[in-house]
Amino acid sequence: QVRLVESGGGLVQPGGSLRLSCAASGSIFSNYVVGWYRRAPGKQRDFVANIFRGGTTNYAASVKGRFTISRDNAKNTVYLQMNNLKPEDTAVYYCAMGDSWGQGTQVTVSS
Q: Angle 4-69-79 (CA atoms, 0-180°, nearest 5)?
Protein backbone atom coordinates (compact mmCIF):
# COMPACT_ATOMS: atom_id res chain seq x y z
CA GLN A 1 0.00 0.00 0.00
CA VAL A 2 1.39 3.38 -1.05
CA ARG A 3 1.29 6.27 1.39
CA LEU A 4 1.91 9.83 0.20
CA VAL A 5 2.44 12.76 2.55
CA GLU A 6 2.55 16.34 1.29
CA SER A 7 4.15 19.20 3.18
CA GLY A 8 5.38 22.72 2.63
CA GLY A 9 2.16 24.62 2.14
CA GLY A 10 1.36 27.89 3.83
CA LEU A 11 0.48 31.53 3.43
CA VAL A 12 2.61 33.61 1.08
CA GLN A 13 2.31 37.04 -0.49
CA PRO A 14 1.87 37.46 -4.23
CA GLY A 15 5.22 37.12 -5.96
CA GLY A 16 6.53 34.85 -3.22
CA SER A 17 7.76 31.26 -3.35
CA LEU A 18 7.02 27.97 -1.69
CA ARG A 19 8.40 24.47 -2.11
CA LEU A 20 6.06 21.56 -1.64
CA SER A 21 7.29 18.06 -0.87
CA CYS A 22 5.61 14.71 -1.43
CA ALA A 23 7.15 11.83 0.46
CA ALA A 24 6.20 8.31 -0.59
CA SER A 25 6.42 5.02 1.24
CA GLY A 26 5.31 1.49 0.59
CA SER A 27 6.21 1.14 -3.07
CA ILE A 28 9.05 1.28 -5.53
CA PHE A 29 8.90 5.01 -5.95
CA SER A 30 11.30 5.29 -8.87
CA ASN A 31 9.03 3.18 -11.13
CA TYR A 32 6.13 5.62 -11.03
CA VAL A 33 5.00 8.82 -12.62
CA VAL A 34 4.26 11.29 -9.85
CA GLY A 35 1.93 14.21 -10.32
CA TRP A 36 0.83 17.34 -8.52
CA TYR A 37 -2.78 18.48 -8.69
CA ARG A 38 -4.70 21.27 -7.01
CA ARG A 39 -8.25 22.07 -6.04
CA ALA A 40 -9.21 25.71 -5.63
CA PRO A 41 -12.26 26.60 -3.52
CA GLY A 42 -15.44 25.69 -5.38
CA LYS A 43 -13.58 24.20 -8.35
CA GLN A 44 -12.63 20.77 -9.61
CA ARG A 45 -9.22 19.27 -9.03
CA ASP A 46 -6.83 20.27 -11.83
CA PHE A 47 -3.52 18.95 -13.10
CA VAL A 48 -0.47 21.04 -12.20
CA ALA A 49 2.61 19.04 -13.18
CA ASN A 50 4.03 15.55 -13.39
CA ILE A 51 7.38 13.87 -13.67
CA PHE A 52 8.22 10.53 -15.22
CA ARG A 53 10.78 8.16 -13.84
CA GLY A 54 13.30 9.25 -16.47
CA GLY A 55 12.85 12.89 -15.54
CA THR A 56 10.51 14.05 -18.30
CA THR A 57 8.16 16.71 -16.99
CA ASN A 58 4.84 18.23 -18.01
CA TYR A 59 3.15 21.39 -16.75
CA ALA A 60 -0.22 23.02 -16.93
CA ALA A 61 -0.11 26.17 -19.04
CA SER A 62 -1.07 28.29 -16.05
CA VAL A 63 2.07 27.37 -14.10
CA LYS A 64 4.64 26.80 -16.83
CA GLY A 65 7.68 28.97 -16.29
CA ARG A 66 6.83 29.56 -12.63
CA PHE A 67 6.67 26.05 -11.15
CA THR A 68 9.31 23.34 -11.33
CA ILE A 69 8.75 19.69 -10.46
CA SER A 70 11.65 17.47 -9.50
CA ARG A 71 12.25 14.14 -7.83
CA ASP A 72 14.82 12.54 -5.58
CA ASN A 73 14.39 8.79 -5.99
CA ALA A 74 16.86 8.06 -3.21
CA LYS A 75 14.62 9.95 -0.79
CA ASN A 76 11.33 8.78 -2.34
CA THR A 77 10.34 12.42 -2.59
CA VAL A 78 8.96 14.68 -5.29
CA TYR A 79 9.14 18.45 -5.00
CA LEU A 80 7.18 21.30 -6.49
CA GLN A 81 9.05 24.60 -6.45
CA MET A 82 6.55 27.40 -6.90
CA ASN A 83 7.83 30.87 -7.74
CA ASN A 84 6.08 34.13 -8.54
CA LEU A 85 2.94 32.90 -6.86
CA LYS A 86 -0.37 34.53 -7.71
CA PRO A 87 -3.65 34.69 -5.79
CA GLU A 88 -5.16 32.31 -8.34
CA ASP A 89 -2.65 29.67 -7.22
CA THR A 90 -4.50 29.43 -3.93
CA ALA A 91 -5.66 25.84 -3.56
CA VAL A 92 -5.15 22.56 -1.79
CA TYR A 93 -2.28 20.82 -3.51
CA TYR A 94 -2.20 17.03 -3.79
CA CYS A 95 0.39 14.61 -5.05
CA ALA A 96 -0.58 11.39 -6.75
CA MET A 97 1.26 8.22 -7.66
CA GLY A 98 -0.58 5.41 -9.41
CA ASP A 99 -3.99 5.19 -7.74
CA SER A 100 -2.77 6.73 -4.49
CA TRP A 101 -3.31 10.29 -3.34
CA GLY A 102 -1.96 12.28 -0.46
CA GLN A 103 -4.10 14.22 1.99
CA GLY A 104 -3.19 17.59 0.48
CA THR A 105 -1.46 20.73 1.69
CA GLN A 106 -3.03 24.19 1.65
CA VAL A 107 -1.37 26.99 -0.29
CA THR A 108 -2.78 30.47 0.17
CA VAL A 109 -1.47 33.42 -1.81
CA SER A 110 -2.70 36.68 -0.38
CA SER A 111 -1.48 40.09 0.67
A: 40
